[in-house]
Each structure stands twice: as C-alpha cells, then as structure tokens.
Design a protein that fits this description.
three-stranded antiparallel sheet; eight-stranded parallel β-barrel; Helix Hairpins; alpha/beta; 17 helices; TIM Barrel; Double Stranded RNA Binding Domain; single chain; elongated
C-alpha cells in the first residue's frame, strides 16, 4: 500500500470483555453445519448455476451429509423460485434434510418466499436486514436505530403470521443482523432480542441467531470476543442456535470460525472450498477436516474429496487453487529433498508400527492427515524437480515402479535424476525418473554384455557352483568359466580370465519387482575399486533372479570400467 494512504485507515475497536473465557476452551465436538453454496455461493458466480446444476450440487451436499442447506433466494428471481418448487414438487428433499431460504425483511419478498416453500416438510426462513452505522447512513439514508430495529420486528411478525398458513410445513426462523461485524454490539443485541421476543423460541423448538462476519474488519480474536459477548447477553440463550457466517476479506475466515466456536457458537454456515463474494465465505471442508485431524467426528463425509472437487469445479466453473488446504492439487506434494526424505522415512516407519499396533495414531512428518482418508493417494506426495533430494527419487522408484534401492545407492541415483531436472528446468514425471535409472544403472551392456550363461551345481565341492558364460567384451566374443560359492561369486571368478579382477564385491541384494511384471526380479551389486576405493552400484532386471544378479554385476563392472 502507498505510504501516504495509511492515514485513511483506523484500527478496529476492541471489545470490552476482560473476563473472556474462549481462550481457555477447545473445540471438542462439531457444530450444526449449514451449506450456503446454492445461494451465497451461487450469487457470487460469474455464470450462476442452472436448475440442473443446482440440483446436482444439492444432491452432492446431501451425500456429504449436510442436514441444513440454503437453496436460494426464491423471492429474488424466477430461477431461484422455480428451483425451490422443483425440489418440493418432485419430492427431492431427503427426510432428514431441512432446506433454508434467504429473504430481506420486506413484506412482498417474505410473502413470495412463502409461496415458494408451500408443501415442504421443514424450512428455515432466514430473514435479515443491515444494521451497521455505515449501512444505516449509506444504504438507508441516515435511518435511525429505531427504524432499523423496526424492520427486524416487522419481518419476524410477518413470518410468524404466515407460518400457520402452510400447516404442512414446519417453519423455523433464522435472523441475521446483516453486517453484524461492523455493528455496535449493543444495537445488534437489541435487534436480535426484539426478534427473539416476537418468535418466542423454546429449548424444544429453537430459533437461529446468525451473526455474520459479513465483511471482515477485525482479527479473529476480536470476532471471538463479539460472539462470546452476544452469546452471554442474548435472551433465551437455551432456546437459540448461535450461528456463524464468516467471510474471508482478511484471509482469516477459518480462524475466525474456529475461535467463534470456542466462543460459544453452535452452528456454522459456509460453502465448499470457500466460494462467495469478494474473497469468499468460510470453507466448510477446511474446518471439518481440521476437526477430523484432531479426532473429532463431524457428520460430513469428505472421504472422496477429489470427486467432490470435480463436481464443484464443473457446475460452478470455479477452480480450487493448487495450494488450497486439503483439496489443492499440490497439498500432499513435497519438492524439497529434506521433506521428501522425512516423508519416506515416516511412511516406512508407520508401516512397521501398524504391524505391531493397528490403532497407531497418524504421525508422518509434514503430513497432518493420511491423504488416503480423503481419497488422495501416496503416489502424488513426492514429485521430483531440481530442488529434490535422494530420498524423494528413491521413494518414487519404490512406490511407482517397485524398485527398493539399497540406501547407499540413493545419493548416486538422486544426483543424476535431479541434475536432469535442473537441466530441463522442470519437474520430472515418475516415468522419466524410471528412464534415467534404467539408462544409468540397469542392464548396462557397454563395454561388456552377458549373452548367455550356464550354472553347474555339481562341478566342485559341496556348495560350490560353476558358471560358464558367453560375453561380448569391447566387441569381441569371449567364453569364460569360474567356480565359486554361488552364481555371483562364480561369475566374479570367471571375469578374472578376461582381466577384470581389480575390484571387490562389497554388497549384493535382490527382490521381486512389486507393481511390475509378476515375473520380474531386480538385483543390486556394489563393487569397490582396488585402486582408488571408488564404490559403484549396478542393477539387473530379469525374470530369472539368477540372471538379474549376473546382469547387476555386469552393470556394476561397466560403471566401474567407465569411471576408470
């Protein structure tokens, strides 16, 4: 911001609440959830949803588990009215779902709304009027506080008068002092209590007082103070559901909601992925999954978050940013080498821990939840670019292609892979990583290649094996033989016949290639040069475990020779 512009702005006043209790509380249970995607979210779309798209979204919200869904503003437009009638006339509202509609406290709009909801089993009629000093001065032309409060009173009276005209429908009342976040607390309380006194809710039939953070003016702790102050002073508190509706102008919608719940709120309104005017509404998926990550049941099912996101993006024509909490494409992805290594170690350790205790708590570095719990997969956690490390490359080769590299092989393979990523200036795909590994380490055939071999387990003493092999070495065919305590050792002895003896075999291991061909085996051989003590690893892949081992030895010899 321009320095000379700072004088235009003032800090938001604090709330006088020296005995505030919310900082010592914790969230231990879920609130009542109310989706406003089909109204608040829809009215913020460049291209509003059609009736068919709204119906698909409504059914998605029902599958997720929302029991209160604001379906629209039926008095505002024919499409909104017709969608409400479509749900009711075609019996598309599940028995345990209550629809909600929004309407200003104006007589003709309230009457039109009642026409829209006739025949529904249960409906929340959500009335509102703006109450802040700024709205009183700008929108209502310097209307008095009494004039504004009267709007709320008249709206509540009319809803109470009209409710008996549709006896088949249970009408629940919700009142919002719109722009509560910028309204004097004492006046917001006056308006809410006036509506409460008219509606006369009871513990058995509660009404909803919604306190919208219509525009975020303050830090989340001030919002929590406001919610606690209201919750203490509202009439008939045991007959109310105090509801939150936070926006995200300051980027703190989630924090304001979580602190508001600690301050005594019972209910949360929001949208999937935070869609809404300006910077958006609260993202309910974010808050609910935050609770899940602390072991709190929410009643909402985000176990296939990618599928939910796909419907959302298609019908709203909005996109979820790549770094968006939980749902973003990259949120379970590590590019940093140190992060990759820690994640790999954490996942490997977790597999071992689960064998001892199936109820082991989730604890993996950098991952607050198990991606599989929301329908994501481990395959996308580690991706490789020039900033990646050896652990990440080994992870991809293991998880994507089934190669469990020896740990001391990780640095050499990793260095070559991220050197290529640096050269290309981009991320490498898992297949590109595999291709580098194969090109540099697997079944190498220059300057020596193994054409054929035969093992004789009865050629020497008990336990000894003879190896007869056909080679091509620097373009010349060679036949060699050797005797050893196993195929690899016998082949090492045979190589001495062609002058390849200036090394020591220091490590050998093998395994079946998981995730690949059922017939494939992989073997790894480490050799150390007798001249400079240089260490190299070679890999062999073949349906025969014996042949894989011999190919690994040939690969390692070729690498050692090329280094010489």
């Amino acid at each position: 911001m321009k320095t000379e512009s700072i004088h235009k702005y003032r800090a938001f006043p604090a709330v006088d609440l020296p005995d505030r209790e919310w900082p010592d509380r914790s969230i231990t249970s879920a609130p009542v959830w109310a989706s406003v995607d089909l109204r608040d979210g829809n009215q913020a779309l460049p291209v509003p949803m059609s009736i068919e798209e709204k119906l698909e979204f409504f059914q998605l919200l029902c599958r997720i588990g929302f029991k209160q869904i604001e379906i629209g503003f039926p008095s505002a437009a024919d499409t909104e009215f017709n969608f409400c009638r479509h749900l009711i006339d075609n019996d598309l509202i599940p028995e345990d779902v209550t629809i909600q509609l929004l309407v200003q406290t104006r007589e003709h709009l309230i009457r039109r709304s009642f026409e829209a909801i006739k025949g529904a089993k249960q409906v929340i009629v959500h009335i509102y009027n703006s109450t802040s000093p700024l709205q009183r001065r700008v929108t209502f032309g310097n209307a008095s506080r009494e004039d504004i409060k009267q709007l709320a009173i008249d709206g509540a009276k009319l809803v109470k008068e009209l409710a008996p005209t549709i006896p088949e429908t249970e009408v629940l009342l919700q009142y919002s002092p719109e722009s509560f976040s910028d309204t004097e607390l004492d006046f917001a309380l006056e308006c809410c209590n006036a509506v409460i006194d008219i509606w006369q809710p009871s513990p058995e039939k509660k009404m909803i007082i919604n306190l919208p953070d219509t525009v975020q003016w303050a830090t989340p702790n001030v919002h929590a103070d406001m919610i606690e102050w209201m919750s203490r002073n509202l009439n008939r508190r045991d007959s109310l559901l105090v509801s939150l509706h936070t926006h995200n102008d300051r980027g703190t919608g989630t924090a304001a909601t979580e602190l508001g719940l600690m301050a005594g709120a019972d209910r949360v309104e929001g949208t999937l992925f935070g869609n809404g005017e300006r910077t958006g509404n609260l993202d309910i998926a974010n808050v609910a999954l935050n609770m899940n990550s602390h072991g709190i049941q929410t009643g909402l099912d985000f176990s296939d978050l990618s599928a939910i996101r796909a419907v959302y993006e298609r019908v709203t024509r909005m996109t979820v940013p790549e770094r968006y909490p939980y749902a973003g494409e990259l949120v379970f992805t590590a590019f940093s080498g140190s992060h990759q290594d820690a994640i790999k170690k954490g996942l490997d350790l977790r597999e071992k821990d689960l064998k001892n205790d199936p109820n082991t708590s989730w604890a993996v570095p950098y991952l607050t939840i198990d991606p599989q719990d929301i329908g994501r997969s481990y395959e996308a956690i580690i991706r490789i670019n020039s900033q990646s490390g050896k652990g990440g490359v080994a992870y991809v080769l293991d998880r994507e292609h089934g190669f469990d590299l020896p740990k001391t092989m990780h640095p050499t393979v990793g260095m070559l892979v991220y050197a290529l990523a640096d050269e290309l200036g981009r991320e490498l795909t898992p297949d590109e990583i595999r291709d580098v590994f194969f090109e540099k380490f697997v079944n190498l055939s220059e300057p020596m290649s193994l054409c054929d071999y035969e093992l004789d387990h009865h050629a020497g003493k008990k336990g000894e094996v003879a190896c007869h092999a056909d080679l091509v070495l620097e373009g010349k065919s060679q036949k060699i033989s050797g005797l050893g305590n196993g195929p690899i050792n016998a082949f090492v002895q045979a190589l001495e016949q062609v002058g390849l003896k200036n090394f020591t075999l220091t490590d050998y291991r093998s395994h079946a290639v998981s995730g690949g061909s059922d017939a494939d085996s992989a073997a790894y051989v480490q050799l150390q040069s007798k001249d400079d003590q240089n260490l190299v690893w070679g890999c062999g892949v073949d349906p025969s475990i014996e042949m894989a081992g011999l190919k690994a030895l040939v690969s390692a010899v070729n690498l050692l020779t090329s280094k010489d």
